[in-house]
Design a protein that fits this description.
alpha+beta; two-stranded antiparallel ribbon
Length: 151
């Protein structure tokens, strides 16, 4: 682990929320057990995965060193035979999903919390846009944030 907050790596996290077809939730969780390990084998760090059975929502988090690392590791995972052979099966479970990109502000080190310098320098998480899976389009919902020059 890191000796101080100044040595802590700049980490970005994807918070991914999936609404799963209610009758497919158990199948999705079983599938994801392997998908999480495949993500980790490719260098992504899966931090958490959990289920809200009342809303059939599956949430998981994975982290990367920076945006370039995220792009490289995701391309390797989604371009691998394992995923391309299972993508249609996996996405048939999903009603909709969204991704929120988070910058680390506090990190757990051992048994305690460490403040991480924020705002981080460099490329914003998620600034290298992702393409949706085949057959998917962006929803009508959009979120807007004030630009730095307007702050």
């Amino acid at each position: 682990m890191w000796g101080s907050a100044l040595e802590a790596p700049a980490v970005i996290t994807e918070l991914r929320r999936y609404r799963i077809k209610p009758d497919r939730l158990a199948s999705w969780v079983a599938f994801f057990h392997e998908a999480a390990r495949r993500n980790e084998a490719g260098g992504s760090q899966v931090e958490f995965a959990g289920v809200d059975p009342d809303t059939s929502t599956f949430v998981w988090l994975r982290t990367y060193t920076d945006e370039a690392d995220r792009e490289t590791r995701k391309s390797a995972f989604y371009g691998a035979d394992w995923w391309t052979e299972r993508e249609a099966f996996a996405m048939d479970h999903v009603i909709e999903y969204d991704v929120t990109f988070l910058e680390t502000a506090i990190h757990r080190e051992g048994g305690g919390l460490v403040d991480v310098p924020w705002p981080r320098q460099g490329e914003r998480p998620g600034s290298r846009g992702d393409s949706p899976p085949d057959g998917w389009i962006a929803s009508m919902r959009q979120a807007w944030v004030r630009g730095e020059s307007d702050a």
